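INFO worker-7 received task bundle
INFO bundle size: 2
INFO processing item 0
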Amino acid sequence: MKILRPPFRASGEENGTTNIFLSVYVVELALRMSPMPISVQRKESGDAESVYQQVRQALEQGQPRLLELTCEKVEGKRLSVLTSDVLAVQTYEKTAASGGSKRPGFSLDS
């Protein structure tokens, strides 16, 4: 069995091996006065859900505070955002197989 890591693609079977596409889970935030969303990635669905709940909780509290997030896909990628500037948060799964397709939610892709 051959395991492919994003962004590589494969089709069918090669030399008797079955190709498996690994997923990455994206947590995406839409910010006030910003045309582009920001995102961090997680390797596990449960970890992405945890980040989503962390952001959602911060939004529900209504108190402006600094929220720092890290990315598992891009080593060293960190972002800090003021919770009062977050308008929306979403999670979705991204695989190498869907690499060229339109992302769900508040994407600006055409």
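INFO item 0 finished
INFO processing item 1
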Amino acid sequence: MVTYDRLIFELSQPGRSAYSLPKSNFPEYDLQSLQDLMRTETPCLPEVFETDVVRHYTNISQKNFGVETGFYPLGSCTMKYNPKINDEIVANPMFDAIHPLQPAFSIQGVLKLYHELQMMLSEISGLAEFTLNPYAGAHGELTGLMIMKAYHEQRGDYRRKKVIVPDSAHGTNPASTVVSGMEVVEIRSNMQGRVDLEQLKAVLSDDIAGMMLTNPNTLGMFEPDICEITKLVHDAGGLMYYDGANLNAILGKVRPGDMGFDIMHINLHKTFSTPHGGGGPGSGPVGVKQPLVDFLPNPRVKCLDGHYYIQNEKDSIGRISAFFGNFKVWLRALVYIRTLGKENLACVGEYATLNANYVREALKGYYELPIAGFCMHECVFDGLKDQTTGIKTLDVAKRLLDYRMHAPTIYFPLLFHQAIMIEPTETESKQTLDEFIAIMIKIALEAKSDPESLRNAPHDTPVGRIDEVFAARQMILTYKDYLNQKFD
């Protein structure tokens, strides 16, 4: 019996073929002069029938887990369902034949869409203008920090090289700061998981370029002192940067610009409807207040009397991408926003917050809740409430896979040793949440009655528990690696 759990290489038989091509009409070419470019050995490729290929890839696809096959409470990545109508519109063949080097008069429709989304994001965020050019959230962070740096340097204030970053921040914040050529000043959170105002005051000086902040933060907690925080930084001569990774929680309810933020990026793929996973695709538009508009990256899309044109500004930080960003990602966002409308965007934040608090209240008797008070779009636990079982967060996450639900983010944020971050998103029903809650409670009870089952989980997945450290140090990337693997 043929089993398609085997690798496609293991199905290979000499002489089999999955394709048939007509004889080439081109003359043969002597490759002897290109010896340095030629292979020294035959490539390791499987010889299989077309049916083998189809079954192989279909089998692999069915092993993959996605938001369309099960619940995906993956905090900090907003793995939510995205309407298929958005994909259908983006797939219109009319969008496939355009080229970014076409003259502006021939792509007026596309430039209009770009400009309209800019204006929509400005309204949603409370900022003056946006660029859609950055390719991802981290790319947007770098762009925003380059704008911050250019602003200070144009004023002749070259001392401002330090950026304040809370210890609860996403890891990209300090990384982007360093890449931009500035220094990180970390401040600790207070006992409520929020910015410690006294810590902030202690580091403010004339060499501070600005502060990066996510609100709500990675604990899912809103900063009640946000207006005071922004005032303190502004009074010290710095700028406020809003990490838009958690914009999902406040969409249509609160605007970063109104909180006092000067620069922000939006993880467009997370908040505004692009299926996101496995590293992409992404989009990280950057918005700024009016005094910073001229620093936005080139090229810029402008409108005059209904005519759209492309312009490059002399004070711009320059190009940060080849052209205008990931076109079909921001096109999906435009469709998503138009579909919901201004009045329904507010429902996103409301339902995301309601769902997270529902899960939080249901599980707090079984999982340790390190911070009291209501959360926003995500809730964070610090492992099991009963610590005597010896069961760790990793064990809980692995066991959850046996129940056909994806694991939430674990061991982040770094403030708690056994962190479990659950972000149910606004698209999940109460029925799904109740099923998830029941399974999480069952796992907590299993930790007492059958801890070994959790330590060896998962049991019913295509692949059992993997040694991540070994896999990282001795990667098997090709079939030849697989044949030659040596276990130390």
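INFO item 1 finished
INFO post-check item 1: The chain has a mean pLDDT of 91.
INFO post-check item 1: The first helix runs from residue 50 to 63.
INFO worker-7 idle
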